[in-house]
């Protein structure tokens, strides 16, 4: 099977969108850029007498009342069908299952410009589940801009339904979501899907920027779900009061198991995002399929400059990284393609478990701090099925991690791994054990320039190897391990 994404000859996505928006506006009004609301002047539409930015048409020109009561679905859909550039004025426009098209821009005045999901609608805004597209991304719906509007759901007013989303896009290319508030979603705030199960659809170059996802009632599925995506970026975005126990994450990257032959999770960036009062099972969840099952293995996921604040909700994990989704048990081999996931400059406090890594090859966590967590972080799982390869922690601080004796009594647990590097790792204000090698086996483990500091008098052992863990000393490396105020180092290397 030939991969259609690899051979694309194109401009960078931001240039394509800028060019598309510029051409659309030149045709309608001159030389204004509709993607730059800050520079748009507001004029009376020459055909309607309703105010709108130059080059845009006010949706009220098509009969939308935006009074929060009248069903505006038909009026807004008519506007979407006829116009490319639409202005959503301040007010609340009740609608459901609205369909976008290519080369479409919807802009408003910020949180006061509201699209309110009509109860009973499958979603608020979308594109027919990508049914009009094909596996070839050249047939995708493309060049869509949503800016300075609010998409509001009915969470708390209707029963929970994990498939009831606000924005439901499938088979799209070059999408910009900028300064959009997603509020009170019943299922997901933004679902980036691959069409119906078993259909091959792909998403390319999708940006979520400077936006807010607020679940309000903490009885939602995910803020963002990514089922298929290449060059997807989530930047400068805040996540609040989102999820519920048993749901994957505020951000959930989780391809469907039926799509192993064609799904793509590639070049994903999550940067400068903040998470507060999240109630799902993770802040960020990578529930990926085993690499060796995939025609196009997942690759290149960057999570950087994130901030997470929790209340130690039981069993919640800040960052969950695994290739064991949908019950898969395959473990990575020497020939498995590495994922290359990098977590950099994460600042996480008060989340029950800092992170977990399982059945994965190729992960780096660096320049990060995890603090005030009841339970320990872990790499691997308590049996051979959680085996990892090529995992690195570099310049990572565990501060008061694993402080609850009933759920761990250590900062970091290492299970089965081959190729594990701990460099410049610090454990301080710990309880019980600093680092533990628990049930499993490990090889090619390097621990260098690592400090375990008993500065609160609660640590009783530095590095403990339990009897049910088998080390391979001849493959290991140890240098510059410093135990301050605590005894015990069972890590063997030669």
TrEMBL record:
<protein>
    <submittedName>
        <fullName>Pectate lyase superfamily protein</fullName>
    </submittedName>
</protein>
<dbReference type="InterPro" id="IPR011050">
    <property type="entry name" value="Pectin_lyase_fold/virulence"/>
</dbReference>
<feature type="domain" description="Rhamnogalacturonase A/B/Epimerase-like pectate lyase">
    <location>
        <begin position="56"/>
        <end position="183"/>
    </location>
</feature>
<keyword id="KW-0456">Lyase</keyword>
<dbReference type="GO" id="GO:0016829">
    <property type="term" value="F:lyase activity"/>
</dbReference>
<dbReference type="InterPro" id="IPR012334">
    <property type="entry name" value="Pectin_lyas_fold"/>
</dbReference>
<dbReference type="InterPro" id="IPR024535">
    <property type="entry name" value="RHGA/B-epi-like_pectate_lyase"/>
</dbReference>
<dbReference type="InterPro" id="IPR006626">
    <property type="entry name" value="PbH1"/>
</dbReference>
<dbReference type="Pfam" id="PF12708">
    <property type="entry name" value="Pect-lyase_RHGA_epim"/>
</dbReference>
């Amino acid at each position: 099977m030939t991969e259609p994404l690899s051979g694309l000859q194109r401009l960078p996505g931001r240039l394509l969108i800028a060019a598309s928006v510029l051409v659309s506006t030149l045709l309608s009004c001159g030389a204004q850029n509709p993607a730059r609301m800050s520079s748009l002047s507001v004029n009376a539409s020459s055909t309607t007498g309703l105010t709108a930015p130059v080059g845009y048409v006010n949706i009220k020109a098509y009969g939308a009342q935006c009074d929060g009561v009248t069903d505006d679905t038909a009026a807004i859909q008519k506007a979407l069908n006829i116009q490319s550039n639409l202005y959503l004025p301040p007010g609340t426009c009740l609608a459901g299952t609205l369909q976008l098209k290519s080369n479409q821009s919807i802009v408003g005045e910020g949180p006061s410009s509201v699209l309110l999901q009509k109860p009973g609608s499958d979603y608020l805004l979308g594109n027919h589940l990508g049914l009009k597209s094909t596996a070839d991304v050249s047939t995708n719906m493309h060049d869509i801009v949503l800016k300075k509007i609010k998409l509001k759901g009915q969470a708390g007013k209707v029963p929970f339904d994990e498939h009831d989303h606000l924005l439901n896009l499938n088979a799209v290319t070059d999408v910009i979501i900028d300064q959009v508030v997603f509020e009170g979603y019943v299922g997901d705030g933004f679902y980036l899907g691959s069409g119906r199960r078993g259909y091959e659809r792909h998403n390319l170059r999708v940006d979520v920027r400077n936006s807010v996802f607020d679940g309000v009632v903490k009885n939602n599925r995910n803020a963002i779900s990514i089922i298929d995506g290449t060059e997807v970026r989530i930047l400068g975005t805040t996540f609040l009061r989102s999820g519920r126990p048993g749901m994957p994450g505020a951000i959930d990257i989780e391809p469907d198991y039926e799509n192993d032959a064609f799904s793509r999770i590639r070049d994903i960036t999550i940067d400068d995002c903040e998470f507060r009062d999240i109630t799902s099972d993770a802040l960020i969840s990578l529930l990926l399929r085993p690499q060796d099952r995939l025609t196009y293995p997942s690759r290149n996921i960057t999570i950087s400059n994130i901030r997470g604040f929790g209340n130690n909700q039981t069993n919640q994990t800040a960052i969950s990284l695994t290739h064991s989704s949908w019950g898969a048990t395959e473990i990575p081999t020497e020939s498995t393609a590495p994922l290359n996931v990098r977590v950099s400059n994460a600042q996480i406090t008060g989340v029950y478990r800092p992170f977990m890594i399982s059945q994965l090859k190729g992960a780096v966590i660096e320049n990060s701090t995890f603090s005030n967590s009841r339970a320990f972080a872990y790499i691997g799982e308590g049996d051979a099925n959680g085996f990892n390869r090529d995992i690195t922690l570099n310049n990572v601080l565990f501060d008061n991690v694993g402080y609850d004796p009933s759920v761990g009594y250590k900062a970091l647990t290492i299970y089965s791994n081959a190729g594990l590097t701990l460099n410049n790792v610090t454990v301080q204000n710990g309880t019980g054990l600093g680092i533990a090698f628990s049930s499993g086996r490990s090889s090619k483990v390097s621990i260098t320039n690592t400090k375990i500091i008993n500065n609160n008098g609660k640590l009783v052992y530095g590095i403990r190897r339990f009897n049910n863990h088998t080390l391979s000393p001849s493959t290991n490396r140890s240098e510059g391990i410093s135990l301050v105020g605590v005894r015990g180092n069972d890590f063997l290397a030669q």
